[in-house]
Write a structure and sequence with these properties.
5-stranded mixed β-sheet; alpha/beta; Purple Acid Phosphatase, chain A, domain 2; 7-stranded mixed β-sheet; single chain
Length: 273
């Protein structure tokens, strides 16, 4: 049995684990007041049937946004209502690269329809200061149709107690589908890799909570490939297709399209140049 399947068994069968880890840098970011708000909802034509795009790890540097521009165009052509960027949007925390991304989004006519998730590369050097100014808060919620989205900060490879409790609080009265979006995932399906949350106990606790609370999908990046796997009725989707070196099993760049049909969810690979 593969290691990640063993972890899945533990999530379902282990007693509730103790406290999550935390991190002083994460604590500091969570205490930073948001400079502006994120739209509380995205309008969709049919609240039971819509799609959106997700992609992580663009690693934009030297203000080169060619692949992002392609993804924005192709996602719109596919009819996707919005795009979630799953962290490591910027490669080295350079302000000019944050500006380049916001300009690309504006030029594509996607303002208010692109949602940002903070990754470890985004906060390099002074990146966190720039992230807040151009992309907004590191933890927030929004809704689209029959679905709720919880965006969390895992840029230090941890979730921490405060965010763990926040996730639980947001599940009260949640709509039909709830998705969590983070850069690091608790598990990378089918792969034995360190490119996931750094604390195994924390990861297992989070996976058990997600299963118990009825989370439909956990979307993330950091591992530069497209992988899906189900643990405790939660879909774990790795969509790190925007840039950087490729990782097994893919050699292409891509974004993933998530289709919502009532409570049926599907994840589809869309290769880009």
């Amino acid at each position: 049995m593969k290691n990640w399947l063993i972890a899945a068994f533990l999530v379902v069968s282990l007693p509730f684990l103790h406290s999550c880890g935390t991190n002083s840098y994460l604590d500091g970011r969570l205490k930073t007041p948001a400079l502006f708000s994120i739209p509380a909802a995205v309008p969709v034509t049919d609240k039971e049937h819509f799609s959106f795009a997700v992609v992580g790890d663009l690693h934009i540097g030297r203000q080169i946004t060619t692949r992002l521009d392609t993804i924005l165009t192709e996602a719109k052509n596919e009819g996707d209502d919005f795009l979630v960027l799953l962290g490591d949007i910027i490669d080295k925390g350079v302000e000019a690269d944050f500006v380049a991304v916001t300009n690309s989004v504006k030029n594509a006519g996607m303002e208010g329809r692109v949602f940002y998730v903070v990754g470890n590369h985004d906060v390099f050097d002074s990146g966190w200061d720039h992230y807040q100014r151009y992309f907004g808060p590191n933890r927030y919620t929004f809704k689209a149709g029959n679905s709720q989205f919880l965006v969390i900060d895992t840029a230090d490879g941890t979730v921490g107690t405060e965010q763990f409790n926040w996730i639980r609080s947001q599940m009260n009265g949640a709509p039909a589908n709830t998705f969590i979006a983070s850069h690091y995932l608790p598990v990378v399906p089918s792969q034995q890799t360190y490119l996931k949350l750094s604390n195994t106990r924390e990861a297992l606790r989070l996976m058990k909570m997600a299963s118990d609370l009825g989370v439909r999908g956990w979307l993330g990046g950091h591992y530069h490939s497209f992988l899906t796997g189900r643990v405790g009725n939660v879909d774990y989707v790795v969509a790190g297709g925007g840039g950087g070196r490729r990782m097994p099993p893919l050699t292409e760049f891509f974004f993933a399209q998530v289709k919502v049909d009532g409570t049926n969810i599907s994840y589809n690979l869309h290769v880009v140049p």
